[in-house]
Design brief:
38% of the residues lie in helices and 14% in strands. It contains 14 helices and ten strands. The longest helix has 16 residues. The radius of gyration is 18 Å and the shape is globular.
Length: 311
């Protein structure tokens, strides 16, 4: 599995890649540093490499067999209303922000998210940089399941590069799994999307560049999203959602996609400022730091309609 991400044509040229074009290598040309023997792995690439190492070492180990109850249609959760759907994230830390909510109780937070009307709860399960765990995700699923009549979907947010991680996601209560194009070669992305389908997980495929979005769409995923943050440099570009939205089909196929904006959003005004029609926004740090998570979710969920978000 190749760990990495996309860079611009200018960036590729600076690295000395002949032609400096995405088409130079259909399989791996979008990966940061591809073709450059002196490339120093980014933080994203180091994390992905470590997660692959851990996943390979875990193959064959027994997984829990807890009955988490019926599956739900994640796609429908994200497309179900006139309001923008909210993906509320649980994370204690991140490489870009450091400690965010050390010691936060995942069951309590997930219960608040569910009661406030979040459509999806994203749970960081990476332990070294984000202080998460698979047990966090299982606890979030149990807490969300107490929300009647409809619970939010549960997303495993991690650096998924191996089938073992998808088996873990299913065993620990996930409905969906994040696949980051920036750390997956094309064929690997397609294999993991297929494995999600086999296991009954909804793949949410994340892109940050035009080339990555093209691959996300080509993978056949129904749920695609834009990370407004470059995971190699941590630079935030809130125009990324607007720019990549232009890659979406403009015919009836658009209705068969759930399109999400996945970073840098704290308020309803941020959603409106995206300037394009989004089905879902993911909010993490702002919610984790908030003293009134329900009020913030209400603002995000009810304060902006899809028509307003689309300008």
């Amino acid at each position: 599995v190749a760990a990495g991400g996309a860079s611009t044509d200018a960036g590729l040229a600076a690295q000395g890649v002949e032609g400096a074009r995405w088409e130079a290598d259909e399989e791996s040309g979008h990966l940061l540093g591809f073709g450059n023997a002196s490339h120093v792995p980014s933080t994203l690439q180091r994390i992905a490499s470590r997660r692959l190492e851990v996943a390979r070492a875990s193959v064959g180990a027994a997984l829990p067999s807890e009955d988490f109850g019926p599956e739900i249609d994640v796609f429908s959760r994200l497309k179900r209303s006139e309001a923008v759907s909210i993906a509320a994230e649980f994370k204690r830390a991140s490489p870009s922000k450091g400690s965010i909510a050390a010691g936060a109780d995942v069951s309590r937070v997930a219960g608040e998210y569910a009661a406030a009307g979040a459509s999806l709860i994203s749970v960081l399960t990476e332990p070294e940089w984000f202080e998460g765990s698979l047990e966090d995700m299982a606890a979030a699923r149990r807490a969300a399941s107490l929300c009647a009549p409809e619970r939010p979907a549960i997303l495993r947010k991690d650096f998924i590069v191996h089938e073992r991680q998808l088996a873990e996601a299913k065993a620990y209560g996930a409905d969906a799994a994040l696949l980051i194009v920036a750390c997956l070669a094309k064929s690997r992305l397609f294999e993991l999307v297929a494995e999600c389908r086999r296991l009954g997980l909804e793949p949410l495929v994340e892109a940050h560049t035009e080339r990555e979005m093209d691959l996300a769409l080509e993978s056949g995923a129904r749920c695609v999203g834009v990370n407004n943050r470059n995971l190699h440099t941590f630079a935030l570009d809130m125009d990324a959602t607007r720019r990549l939205e232009r890659r979406l089909p403009r015919d009836d196929r658009r209705r068969s996609l759930a399109f999400a904006s996945l970073s840098g959003i704290s308020t309803a005004a941020d959603v409106a400022a995206l300037g394009v029609d989004v089905d879902c926004v993911l909010v993490g740090e702002a919610l984790m730091r908030s003293n009134d998570k329900a009020a913030l979710i209400d603002e995000l969920r009810l304060g902006v309609s899809r028509s307003a978000a689309g300008g």
